[in-house]
Amino acid sequence: MDELHGDRDSLAAQLRSLRLRRGLTLSALARHTSYSRSSWERYLNGKALPPRAAITEFAAAVGVPATALLIQREQEQDGRRPGSRGPLPHEESAAPGRHVPSEAPQHEGPAEAAPPSGPSRTRTALVSAVSACTALVAGILIGGWIFGGNEAEGQNREKARNEPQCREFECRDKDSQRTGCHIGAWTAAATWSGRTYIELRYSPGCRSAWARITDAHVDDTARVEGPRGARNERSVTYENDTYSPMVEAPYPASARACGVIKGKETCTSAGGPSPMPPALTDEREPARKPAPAGSG
After folding, report:
1. 161 and 181 in contact (C-beta within 8 Å)?
2. Mind telling me which residue stretches traverse the membrane in this protein (predicted)?
3. Which top CATH class is 168-267?
4. Exposure of 131 by Cβ count < 10 A (0-12 exposed, 13-18 middle, 19+ buried)?
5. What digits encode the pLDDT tens for the residues 111-165?
6. Full-prediction pTM beyond 0.85?
7. Pseudo-torsion of CA 117, 123, 125, 129, nearest 10°?
8. Can you name the CATH fold of 1-87+127-163?
9. What does the domain layout of the chain look like in residue ranges?
10. Are 210 and 244 in contact (CB under 8 A)?
11. Which of 86, 110, 171, 200 lies 20 to 30 angstroms, CA to CA, from 14?
12. In sequence order, which residues have a C-beta less than 8 Å from that of residue 1 and are 6 or more positions away?
């Protein structure tokens, strides 16, 4: 695969490796960032260099710091690769032992001695050493994140668990994954519409709720309804599952979830006070409960 896409140490190869470790599809990347599925296909296959903003959002989606990836992006934008020891682009340096040709034009007036070649070689060596050190640090950091990604992800989950990014009304219209509200969430109510599973997901840490539908079809809609007429919905655009943005819910019974499946609306009851078994706590792993017998 790397031979098809180019240099295995390229930025595109690093992005592909991180995406595969995270288990994200191109469609999932499009949902978690502000860039389309076709854009990520070009970036990950090396057809286009991703913008800095795309790198930052990608790093957040896969749970790693963005610094080393941004360093590697700048190197590739300048026409370099990590580990290169050559001078910076457009910088010329005299080869050891090279002298100014005697035919070089001279200014009128007193002759001026040519600058010594020693400082020039020192400057070139210094630039090359700095470039090599930067590439080495970037390679070590990226390698550590690729092979030690679980530790970085664990730290991110712990931070999200201890410091939710929103609470109650602050969570309205926001995404449960991007705010960390999906960590520790549980299913408070559920029902079926044919083979589609409809859930009311509840976050006690964020005191908010959202709807999730699984084994649905494109254009089917997940909708959550909260107190005082608050509601949010999202339709399936790729694959076969989706979840809505959040609404505030001070307690589970203050919200319910609905699914509009093939034009037919089906809603759960109000949320219960305790998790329904099995309690899934990660929106990256859609519920895969077996459909009830005779559900079609």
Report:
1. no
2. 125-147
3. mainly beta
4. buried
5. 444 445 555 566 666 656 666 656 665 665 665 555 555 555 555 555 545 577 8
6. no
7. 180
8. 434 Repressor (Amino-terminal Domain) (1.10.260)
9. 1-87+127-163, 168-267
10. yes
11. 86
12. 16
